[in-house]
Amino acid sequence: MGEEDKGEGRGRIAEAVRAGRILLGDGAWGTALYARGLAQGECPEAWCLDRPADVRAIAADYIEAGSDLVGTNSFGANRFKLEHYGLAATADRINEAAARLSREAAGRARWVTGSVGPTGRLLLMGDVTEEELEEAFTAQAAALLRGGADAICVETMSDPTEAALAIRAARAAGAPEVLCTFTFDRTVRGDYRTLMGTSPAEAAAAALEAGADIVGTNCGNGIERIVEIVAAMREAVGSAPMLAQANAGLPRVVDGRDEFPDGPEAMADQLEALVEAGARIVGGCCGTTPDHIRAFRARLGQSPG
User: Fold this and answer.
1) Which segments of the chain have a pLDDT < 70?
2) Predicted confidence (pLDDT) per residue in 94-133, tens digit
3) What is the maximal distance between C-alpha atoms in the chain?
4) Sign of the four-CA dihedral 48, 49, 54, 60
5) Where do the domains of the chain lie?
6) Where are the beta strands (DSSP E) in the chain?
7) CA 283 to chain CA centroid, nearest Å
8) Phi, psi of 134, deg, nearest 5
9) Which of 29, 69, 92, 200 is within CB 3.0–4.6 Å of 111 for a Cys-Cys bond?
10) What is the model's pTM?
11) CATH class of 3-300
């Protein structure tokens, strides 16, 4: 990736939002990988090296559907998650390839956000130290940036401390922008908390304090609940842009796999409520497809790019 290609014509994501644009993200990567034959128990991120044409095609499908931002197939490509598959030594190669493949699909006009997910190690239980987490996140972010990512998206976080470490690591690696999303469960009281007991407002505040430019929520909930989470997060966000990517409803297990009930139009019907709640970057998570993104684009009524 030549220096002339990095960021050319795109500017900053947060600046585009502050200029009044509603940006459209992509949909689910896991859903797309399974549709292309990913086996249960197989490492999704290994496809960046083993089946690059399929990975590039997933990003291209979302770009064709109208996404302004497309992620990377690197959600679990930290060395801790890759150790499970015996692939820790290939972490840099996987992340660089993940970003490069999405960059090739996105071209110069659309943004690529390098996906960084949780490690699966718990600080609270002493599974890992903060220094070890930060080292792993820094290496992952640096490789994604080398591959052509415009920004780092720290996503689907539950522990605000781990999220903060990932945000700071992305900054240390040179990320021009950092996005951060958390996933929440609905409690018996009807409010929302992460697995660590953190509220939407607390999570947003922690991410912003750590240096995130854009905060929000993804996964774990259908769009109706994501609307409520965004509204609850709004009080802590101030002028920072908000990102929201909902699942296609709550999953049902059919033949050992999750199936998601909400079709493209059902989700698109609720986009207006999501924007009214405060989201300025919208997209999909588990169960969503290019058809969902295409329906979102039709409702937003804006041309991508």
Assistant:
1) 1-9, 302-305
2) 999 999 999 999 999 999 999 999 999 988 888 899 999 9
3) 52
4) positive
5) 3-300
6) 23-24, 69-70, 111-116, 151-157, 178-182, 185-186, 192-193, 214-218, 242-246, 252-254, 257-259, 281-284
7) 9
8) -65, -40
9) 69
10) 0.94
11) alpha beta
